[in-house]
Automatic annotation (TrEMBL), chain A:
Superkingdom of the source species: Bacteria
GO biological process: respiratory electron transport chain
Family per similarity comment: Belongs to the HupC/HyaC/HydC family.
Localization per record: Cell membrane
Region (Disordered): 203-227
GO molecular function: electron transfer activity; heme binding; iron ion binding
Protein name: Thiosulfate reductase cytochrome b subunit
The organism of origin for this protein: Lentimicrobium saccharophilum
UniProtKB/TrEMBL annotation, chain B:
GO molecular function, one term: oxidoreductase activity
InterPro entries: Cyt_c-552/4, Multihaem_cyt_sf, Multiheme_Cytochr_ET, Octahem_Cyt_c
UniProt keyword list: Membrane, Signal, Transmembrane, Transmembrane helix
TM spans (from-to): 498-517
Name under which the protein is recorded: Octaheme c-type cytochrome, tetrathionate reductase family
Record has Acyltransferase as a keyword: no
UniProt keyword Protein biosynthesis present: no
Ranges where the Cytochrome c-552/4 domain occurs: 232-268
Pfam families cross-referenced by the UniProt entry: Cytochrome_C554, Cytochrome_cB
Superkingdom per UniProt: Bacteria
Length: 227, 531
């Protein structure tokens, strides 16, 4: 490693958002699978109550997070790129075992590697909206009644329930893999520490290029992308 | 000092918003405003506006109950007409049934799987008819003096119709004190309604399961409305009447979705503080959750096997009792099964029903014949899940004509074909069918039958209502039999669940394998470095 520099990577709100989201997803998954009768813990009634409260918490958090991403321009972090995508995949599959350097350098303006960009974008624009929308339908669907508004009438809960369940499995799988990938930073704990304190040691020379356009991650250290 | 501030801020940043959200979304304390209004309303007991003992026309010594009716109608001039058009007198209702058109059905001509039906047995059955003298088909339904006013309006509790007397009370010195009874007539009392509605089918709670003497003396645990330690409400507090048309339907004999009595009439459609419970009321009737069990005080008959009737012991008819004193076998009726504290079965019901008529063909390819059919399904907007008592049994049918049979059970005298006196099925069936008259092939057999009776009474206190988990559970929930819709906690898509579990297992295995290779390779790497 070249000279290291402590950089304030994750801002206060970002960490607040991240950890609340983590907590809420955990609570939602745990109570959700109890509602699914996968196990008994709180009891069905309590599980539903907690699940609904947590759902509202999650929605409020998402509103704030969207505001933050838009106003700070941080949304650009999620613009997908194919550059280095293969190299990044190969790093996780092979390079990591040979102590090869990370093919993508983490910088303030490009915190995410191309794989992360894709996965997080998928979460944000696909899976979380699917969960939120199917969840809201779960809460607010109406059986057809005499004087009801036809557009929110739903004859059958089944399709909503199945989509919500499928999304839950995917999110849970994401959390599992995400928890593991935390350990693949410079050191095993460096990513975790960064998300807790906000500070991370990044390679110094990367920080000079802060005017580099977002969405085009640096690749100068990619000496050995292939095996 | 400074090192503590960060974790504290961080902790607050996570906990505080959750607390705020929880507080904002917290429901207010239960608001019993509506219940209190209702309690206040029904706490006031009605006082009659007139004292009938002061009327001169009621002072005479009545020798004949028709005279009482004539006296009543001399003031209540239009009530006779009203009653002659009410189901308590006609024992039939005009109704439209899909596939049948306009029908005139009721206790008068329907079969059931208790005593099979009234036809040819009127002399006995009409003990519960609001009239005098319905002994056979010659009864005059257009004579207002055939109405029995006091059977419902007696407030002394002493009026009683005689057994086997076609609706007449005993007369003469052994009969009821007519003068005292007419002096105190008034709104019907629960005990009076109960004489027939508790005792139907041959004894207390035999038929309905949720209507029995226990309601008159029970506490809130038996029925919150009629509880002696509660509001002590009367039948007619809910079953109100306008021009002798009484609200409330019994779907073993009714067919149409009119004149029903609903909990919502008083309690509104949104009686719960929790919205999620109010939403249930769109598809779930109040009774489903609020009547977790019926037959709370005395047992009710769940099964009646006519096929075993007419057996004798030592050439004589006999009875067998269970330890609670319930008859479990009698030669004149067959085998019975009784049960107490019964969990209802559940059905979709939209307020309309069909009945198996004496003229309908029995479909022997079906194992069980439905004596009545409650219509409803999940996709039907008018349907709700309701609790029902299902009375099962075996009863005679014509094995060649494939029709259900009306048996003659009762007569004043032996030798006239009444099963209960002669213990002869063939004669009983011949007489019963000839009376209607309908053909009988001469060959009878027995078929399993089911009768569906909605459970509406014996409402439990809110704390004892059916809990979420009793339905929202994978196996053996209360609604396990209703499979035409998706219910969270009960239903799942097995393929989806399997795929989901596979995804999680593969993710986990991937992590294990990946981290193992990482651990191994880093050790190798370190070893090389140290060399």
């Amino acid at each position: 490693m070249s000279t290291n520099n402590r950089v304030y990577v994750y801002k206060g709100f970002e960490r607040f958002w991240h950890w609340n989201q983590a907590l809420l997803i955990f609570v939602l998954a745990f109570t959700g699978f109890e509602i699914h009768s996968s196990y008994d813990f709180f009891g069905f009634e309590t599980a539903v109550k907690i699940h609904n409260y947590a759902a509202w918490g999650f929605i409020i958090l998402i509103v704030f997070a969207i505001f933050w991403h838009v106003t700070t321009g941080e949304w650009k972090q999620y613009i997908p790129t194919t550059k280095n995508l293969k190299a990044q995949a190969e790093f996780y599959l092979f390079g990591i075992f040979r102590n090869a350097p990370h093919p993508t350098k983490k910088t303030l303006i490009s915190k995410l590697n191309p794989l992360q960009r894709l996965v997080y974008l998928g979460l944000k624009v696909l899976f979380i909206p699917i969960m939120v929308i199917s969840g809201l339908l779960f809460m607010f669907y109406r059986y057809p009644q005499g004087d009801s508004i036809a557009i929110i009438n739903i004859d059958n809960l089944e399709i909503i329930a199945l989509i919500h369940t499928a999304g839950a499995f995917v999110l849970l799988a994401f959390v599992l893999v995400h928890l593991y990938l935390i350990t693949t930073g410079h050191t095993i704990t460096s990513n975790l520490k960064a998300m807790i304190t906000g500070w991370e040691e990044l390679d110094e020379e990367d920080q000079k290029d802060q005017d580099q356009p977002i969405g085009k991650p640096e690749n100068e250290h990619d000496e050995n992308p292939k095996i | 000092m400074k090192s503590y501030t960060k974790p504290i801020t961080f902790f607050l940043a996570i906990v505080a918003p959750l607390l705020i959200v929880t507080l904002v979304l917290r429901k207010p304390e239960p608001d019993h405003e509506l219940l209190n209004t209702l309690r206040a309303k029904y706490a006031v007991k009605r006082k009659p506006g007139v004292d009938h003992s002061k009327f001169e026309i009621l002072q005479k010594n009545f020798t004949n109950p028709h005279e009482i009716t004539a006296a009543c109608l001399s003031c209540h001039t239009e009530r006779g007409e009203e009653l002659m058009n009410s189901a308590h007198f006609t024992w039939e209702r005009e109704a439209f049934i899909p596939g049948r058109g306009v029908t005139y059905l009721g206790k008068k001509n329907l079969v059931n799987n208790f005593c099979t039906g009234v036809q040819s047995n009127e002399g006995s059955c009409m003990k519960c008819h609001a009239g005098y003298g319905w002994n056979d088909k010659s009864f005059d339904f257009s004579n207002p003096y055939n109405i029995d006013c006091v059977v419902c309006h007696d407030n002394t509790g002493t009026y009683e119709k005689a057994s086997g007397a076609a609706g007449y009370p005993k007369m003469g010195p052994e009969g009821p004190d007519f003068k005292a009874i007419v002096a105190s007539v008034g709104q019907p009392k629960s005990a009076g309604c109960g004489t027939c509605h508790f005792g139907g089918g041959g004894g207390n709670n035999v038929k309905h399961g949720d209507l029995e003497l226990g309601l008159l003396t029970g506490g809130r645990d038996v029925d919150v409305h009629m509880a002696v330690d509660g509001l002590n409400m009367n039948c007619v507090d809910c079953h109100t009447a306008e021009n002798h048309k009484i609200k409330g339907r019994y779907y073993a004999v009714s067919s149409s979705n009119t004149q029903r009595l609903n909990c919502e009439d008083c309690h509104t459609e949104t009686p719960h503080q929790q919205n999620i419970l109010n939403e249930h009321s769109i598809k779930v009737a109040c009774q489903t959750c609020h009547i977790p069990v019926y037959a709370k005080v005395n047992a009710t008959k769940m099964y009646w096997d006519w096929a075993t009737a007419t057996r004798k012991k030592d050439g004589k008819e006999y009875e067998v009792l269970d330890e609670d004193g319930n008859i479990v076998y009698t030669s004149i009726k067959g085998d019975f099964v009784w049960d107490k504290m019964v969990k209802p079965e559940y059905l979709w019901f939209n307020g309309t029903a069909d009945h198996h008529l004496l003229t309908d063909k029995v479909d022997t390819s079906q194992n069980i014949l439905k004596i009545n059919t409650l219509f409803g399904e999940y996709r039907d907007r008018d349907s709700k899940i309701i609790p029902v008592k299902v009375h099962r049994g075996r009863q005679p049918y014509d094995a060649e004509n494939l029709t259900i049979i009306q048996a003659k059970l009762w007569d004043k005298d032996k030798g006239k074909g009444a099963l209960w006196l002669d213990l002869d099925w063939e004669r009983s069936i011949e007489e019963g069918m000839a009376y209607i008259p309908l053909p009988y092939s001469g060959k009878h057999s027995f078929i399993k039958t089911e009768m569906f009776m909605p459970v509406n009474h014996m409402v439990s206190p809110a704390a004892e209502a059916v809990t979420c988990k009793e339905c929202h559970t994978r196996e053996n929930g209360r609604l396990a039999g209703l499979t035409d819709f998706y219910m969270p906690g009960r239903d799942r898509n097995r393929t989806l669940d399997l795929a989901g579990q596979l995804l999680l297992i593969l993710s986990f295995l991937g992590i294990v394998v990946h981290s193992a290779i990482r651990a191994l390779s880093s050790r190798k790497h370190n070893t090389i470095q140290s060399h």
